[in-house]
Amino acid sequence: MKKTGQKICLIILLIGGLIVFQQNFIEHRKRLLNTNPINYFVPSKVTGLVSLEFKGIVSDFLFLKLSTLLGDKIIKKEKFKQNQADFIYQAADIITDLDPWFWDAYLMADMVLAWDFKEIDLANKLLLKAKKYRTWDFKVPYYLGFNYFYFLQDNENGSKYLMEASKLPGSPEYLPALATRLSVYQNNYGPAIVFLMDLLKSTHASSSVIPLQKRLETLIILENLEKQVDKYEKLNKSLPTDLFDLVKKGFIDRIPDDPYGGKFILLPNKRVFTTSKMIDK
Amino acid sequence: MILKMLSLMKLTFKEGARERAILGIGLFALLMMCASFIVVNFFMRDLHKVAVDINLSAIGLAGLLLTFFVSINLLSMDIDKHTIYCVLSKPFSRSQYIWGKYLGIMLIITAAFFILTVCSSINILLIKSQYAVWFQRFSWMEFYKAVYASLLMFFLLNAIVIFFSTITTSSFLTLLFSISTYIAGQTIEEVVMFLKTSGAEEMALSGGVEKLIGIAQYILPNLSAFDLKVQASHAIIVSNSYMMGITFYSAFYSTILIFAATLIFNKRELM
Predict the structure, then answer these.
(1) Which among B44, B182, B233 has CB closest to A203?
(2) Are A225 and A258 in contact (CB under 8 A)?
(3) Is the CB of residue B47 less than 8 Å away from at least one CB of chain A?
(4) Looking at the 3D structure of chain B, how many domains does it have?
(5) ipTM more than 0.90?
(6) Disulfide-capable partner of A262 in A1, A258, B55, B251 (CB 3.0 to 4.6 Å)?
(7) What is the distance between the alpha carbons of residues A77 and A81, in angstroms, rounded to a whole number?
(8) Distance between CA B98 and CA B79 in Å, rounded?
């Protein structure tokens, strides 16, 4: 009886010691990971082979790894380095080699590469790969069209892909009209707002919704400011010298705050931009 | 003859069902399936894909554990522990013993697959009811086709296990050869495909190695042909002719292996 009691005491002591040790160890591990982050992916020629018959679940795991890596940077408001664009492209390429129909992987890479890195060619390369496999999905040509139109100002290709998207099942009703009137929307934030609203509707995880909402909020402010500049020009037959003129003449109560921490400025071509470039300060 | 094989099949099934490892394997698979409830929340749109991926992988992994830790014991341990003499002293031929064992193992695997498929169907149904919007592209038919294809793969893999049990002298060697054949069977198609791409030129493999891989692709079973998990997770329709093709492939390959196993086992000196 006495011996059993001693053994139980020893086990409790060891558990206590383990908890203390683990706390210390977790800190050490964090420090180690900070100095040597696990931000690499093994090429798909190897990953594919070692995944055996579990390619689907391995692609899910790698996607989680990539999204955690990107999410961590977004939460800590760390700036992306330009060379990380290649890493994100390669990681998404590996994930979609394992599961070529994996839409979350294509979309996340497209959003980050196009919006944060302005690497439209890389984003489009991935979307073209998605187009090869997801032949039923209107979203693939839709996003391709958007990239061509909005980022590359290539209305011809933008219109071509949007028309293609409009012919696929489940596509929004406004697509054919948008595709045919793209040139009207050039130099306008409208399509980007429609695009992001649509994207938000189809996004499930809350952590992914927050950056999209922030971007949408900024675009709505930019669009409204440009509308007020147009109104000002029509009424005063001249352009405001800066956005404060809009406040002085009562078009807006005050210059809104940029959700990204930058400042809104009026350019001589009547366009309103933000110094943050929609990247967290 | 068939009655004798059926009675051996029943005996093997009962023996296998008594293995405690089965409970552990089942519990592991069920826990993995339950984990999909939480894991799907980390994804943005492909919730149906992740749920199907995890559930099908849990079934596949349970099948592998059953094959490597239960099936191997049922035949190799008989030889290892000399319990085989008790069985062979009864009016059974050695061929009947091998066929009976194989059928019994097939029955265990089928029963395990049935239970796990029912559990995963309930699991997916529950996830689907919670996230119905994200399950628009999901097909029960394709899900069950993937389960069936996986079951066919295990029929073949267990025939491989039986074959190696008859030619090796210990259960450890059977395990080693079976795992090696499983890995080679799952990867051979990709290796051959890679060798046909331009990227392979940089590797500069010797002609001998290339020939060896070429021969291996005809000898080794192409187990990756039975993997329809990714297709099922995206409801990509797999044709009925393909399903027929893999059914015959598994049936022919398994029958050849079991016949070869009976031939070897008949000649084997058990003393």
Answers:
(1) B44
(2) no
(3) yes
(4) 1
(5) no
(6) A258
(7) 12
(8) 12
